[in-house]
Amino acid sequence: MSQNHTYCVIMAGGVGSRFWPMSRSNRPKQFLDILGTGESLLQQTFNRFLKICPPENIMVVTHQSYRDMVAAQLPSIPKDNILGEPSRRNTAPCIAYAAYKIKAKDPEAQMIVAPSDHLVLKGEEFTRIIREALAAVQSAPILVTLGIKPSRPDTGYGYIQFTQEHLKGHDPVKKVKTFTEKPNLDMARYFMESGEFLWNSGIFVWSVNSITDALNHHLPEISSVFEDDMDKLNSPEEAGFITRAYTVCKNISIDYGVMEKADNVYVVPADFGWSDLGTWGSLYEHMPQDDNANAVAGKNVILYDSKNCVVHMPSGKLAVLQGLDDFIVVESDNVLLVCRKSEEQQIKEFVNEVKISKGEEFV
Amino acid sequence: MSQNHTYCVIMAGGVGSRFWPMSRSNRPKQFLDILGTGESLLQQTFNRFLKICPPENIMVVTHQSYRDMVAAQLPSIPKDNILGEPSRRNTAPCIAYAAYKIKAKDPEAQMIVAPSDHLVLKGEEFTRIIREALAAVQSAPILVTLGIKPSRPDTGYGYIQFTQEHLKGHDPVKKVKTFTEKPNLDMARYFMESGEFLWNSGIFVWSVNSITDALNHHLPEISSVFEDDMDKLNSPEEAGFITRAYTVCKNISIDYGVMEKADNVYVVPADFGWSDLGTWGSLYEHMPQDDNANAVAGKNVILYDSKNCVVHMPSGKLAVLQGLDDFIVVESDNVLLVCRKSEEQQIKEFVNEVKISKGEEFV
Predict the structure, then answer these.
(1) A350 and B324 in contact by Cβ < 8 A?
(2) What is the tens place of the pLDDT at every residue in A183-235?
(3) Which residue of A312, A322, A334 is the best one to mutate when testing the B interface, meaning the one whose CB has the most B CBs within 10 A?
(4) DSSP calls for B75-103
(5) Beta strand A197-207 pairing with A143-148
(6) Cis peptide before B21 (omega within 30 of 0)
(7) pLDDT, tens digit, for every residue of B108-146?
(8) For chain A, which terminus, N or C, has the lower number of CB atoms within 10 Å?
């Protein structure tokens, strides 16, 4: 039964302060029904993976303060599958923790790693691509990432350049040439026109052996922490061990720490209606819009002479909005935000200033 | 003791829907602390009149559904001084009711009539002008109105044209030539430049005999209702009588019904920092403003790249507002309004549409 060796790891540690005031430090973006569908982004991600493996093979890595929230939103996964991080250390320690925990009980495992807060509109295509990647990592000791075909010269993403060399017997699995972090606009335009570049989705597929080999090679200071004490994982000593492990693990991303350095990295070009929903603007692109290009969530929102706005209001609140063009209007609990969509990168700064001047109750 | 013959009548029946969503049908403008001073406009008006007469000589005419709210805000006046109207009939029936009620117990009375929801910034000057007018109406059987020196060619007010003829022995009390309702802009400019025109403040001073004589002459269909049953006023039968009286009283303003027609009308030109606070825009003019000309009420409002805005937020609510120029932003209970200041005349229509499409809970 090959399915039993397939594990999904959902990374759910983020804060998503760009979605403030809907997201708060005690209620990050992945736990919100930000699209108004009735399911949080985490629940959508989980349901997507139920097509790949059973709930007992789905793990969620999150900050330990969010463990109860994960358990409440995903009642069908075992409590032991919710991995609590004592501090935020970026993706490399998070993936190492999950990989060694899985390896400790199933050395033959393959794993998929995915963020909890991304949008996937075409679920069937997503499943097909994941299966394609799983087949590839079963046939060769490679690291696979999913690359999204760019639809615009976005300067907010990392890009992956791929070659026409593919994994033997797996045409869609292309050899990666380079990883490039957020380019400038000219570069992004060139990337897009060339047809050789894909957006880095942050969704990875590999066997636990391949990723632990890669960690040993490229991040030995992290892997050694786990290698030495693998027997503590899946035991009553796990929590104590992780608390100590995280104090010594450095803060580094899996992209920078492993993917950009390894020579066995492949990418599967994919087109499954993906968005990282990184900002209100990107959410706006994926919400239904009215005739004036307004995207509205909230039962009682009335717009006059307004266009290109994204509005998110609690259902019990009436909002009458007049004369707004290209604005974000969001109300959540005790906070109202009105901000030009073109200035949304400032929201992070607003949150910091609010925290300093008004206190934790608003962030 | 001449003071005992002086009565103040505060008209507090309005709804003030242009101040929605702060004003609601169950909480009209006059009951709100709209300036953030800690006192409602009604309380400010009442306190102004305490300089003129004792609380037992101050009366408030309001819709009967607001009587309890008046009593709660003005605990020092006798319950019998709160006159409940069964329906809205404009100012003539309201003034007739108060005038006959006062006349029934004190035929020698003078009375001041004033709206409950206007702003007066210069209280001492107000008192001085009122005393001037009281002295005039004690010396002659005239009707006096206070006229405000115009500071701009406002097309929203009625104008009073006065002559240089003054009441004998009372230089500042000028004979009125004409009343003109809301003029167009050219006319308003001409009025202002001529120096012969004043804004109609809706504040009147007269003896009860002078006003009842005028009502008998110009609105006999109203005065006869009260003349015939004056003995029922100040008796247990008053409420029942008023219910019947208001079904037969026509809906007409004192300006149109009496002041424009009477030939014994005088005006005292006044300059006591007056505003009728008819709109958010006029409120804005009278609120303290920051360096970017934003007028803000609310402890937790943070503005970025915004100017010329009027913002009114509940104290427990944080508002972060970016990129707004010349907007009204008001939140109150379950409603948020964002509207260009230049479009505030639309607010009345918004309220009507909300009432139809969303129901009474929001208006």
Answers:
(1) no
(2) 999 999 999 999 999 999 999 999 999 999 999 999 999 999 999 999 999 99
(3) A322
(4) TTS-GGGEEEESS---HHHHHHHHHHHHH
(5) antiparallel
(6) yes
(7) 999 999 999 999 999 999 999 999 999 999 999 999 999
(8) N
